[in-house]
Amino acid sequence: MKASKVDKKTYYRGIPMMPYDLLKEVTIAMIAVLGFVLIVSAVLSSPDVPSVTLQSWSKADPVDFLTTATGELSGGTVVAGYGPPYNTGSGSVQSWGPLAPQSWAGVHIPVNAPNDFVIEPLTQATAGDSALASALSAYNSASGDQQQKWLANYTTGLGTATVASDGTVTVPSGDYGPVTVLMDRMLTLARSGGLDALLLTSDHFYQTDFTRPLLFLDDGGYIADLATQQKLIGSDWGVMNETGRYPGQAWLWLYTMWYQIPPFNSDTGFLGISAANTDLAVVGIMLLLTAILFLVPVIPGLRDIPRWIPIHKLIWRRHYADMRRRAAAATTPNAP
Amino acid sequence: MSSDSVPGAIDAAAAQPVGEDEPGWTAAVRRRVEKTLPITELLPTKQPAYIGSWVYVFGVVTIAALVWVVLSGVVLAFFGSAWWHVSSVGHFFNSIHYWSVQMFFIFMVLHLWGQFWGAGWRDGRAKTWMVGVVIFSISIGTAFTGYVIQQNFDSQWIAINAKDAINSTGIGGLFNALNFGQMYGLHVMLFPIGVTLLVVLHIIQVRAKGVVRPIDDPFQVAP
Q: Predicted ipTM?
């Protein structure tokens, strides 16, 4: 009969038993953990760096904001060409050989960067602003080539733009068409806080989906700069860290580690794995490792490691010592 | 109540173990419970002496930390997601929640390593190990959803970075880290219920099977 099928009396035969108070142990553990947590909470508190808003971004770094907004309008940002689940682009689509789950899944959270991030919010802000209405009309009626020419010129102009003390951005004179008015109003809208509300995904009164404002923020350089200052970028072990001197999601260390080593951070790659599909590769490896961890009890060799590396002798050292003493006593004649 | 019992009196028969031939679903479930987890195993007063090792402390302190994670989370959920940003009391409860989670993971990992090096899956305990690994995995998901609903810089940065990994697997349309409402629901409801139920199952498995014997016990009696 297997050991798993015997009753406990048989299973524990030869094992000395000791009094045990389960509820007392649980109670002591709860009090001890609570005491420690209260002390640490009082002394170390917890991190809470305020969130970035489109308003705070446009005030702190208006040129970066306008560069991003111009990029969204031209369709040249990361999100504009991201791919599933946001749109039909391919810029951020990852695959490994024939394995392309991101493409297979398709578009489920539609994001049209030029329209959702710029045209639509500005359209909603045209009330009482005839200059904006005219600029939008002029932009929308222009050819695609003309629009891209204006946007390219304006982006170049932003490279030498000046920022006044009141936050106004002035670009050198150039052929920008209606883009100057559009971007001026975008900045005004953002600085007032109105753009934060207009970018929320739902048209309903209650809002809980921040996909669009976060994607817009992600396209800019401002939030990444703040993250760099906080040592939160990928090369600093990324999302397992958090602001301040706090432990963060330390349990993600293995997941995050892969991003720091070749071929996952390499441009050339190995076996089709490189920086271009590192997310898919890392997630795949972690799923595989989790499955292996799950199946340890049934994997020969892996399940025998604890027997080969005798850390168990440390865990149960008193038990083994006791067993040896009892064995010696049993074999010694006239033992007391 | 049996037909010949006196109204209002305690039915002594009801306290007896259910008979092998007693019909009905309730009787079948009761038979299974009485066989799998009698009260003597659920609340034991004696255990093998070899559990007098620090390794066995990690399991119980993990559960203790989970209790404080849940209770502090209930307080935070009750007062709303923005409360802890504007209230010093709220911030303190957030700190309790935060450090309880940190303790929970530290103890859980120590418990996992302890069970690995003691090969805790032996003698029919593989399912106990497997449920433990599932708890560990869901706990990581629970903590992640907690990080992205903090409504601060950390949650923004973690969400916009994590989205690429999630999207790469094709589930980005189903599990959107940028959707606060979805993450909040998962964090305060579905994931905690999942973790708690699985922890209860894990405890039942441990209590039903008993603590595994030491590896290569020289005095182990061949079953």
A: 0.92
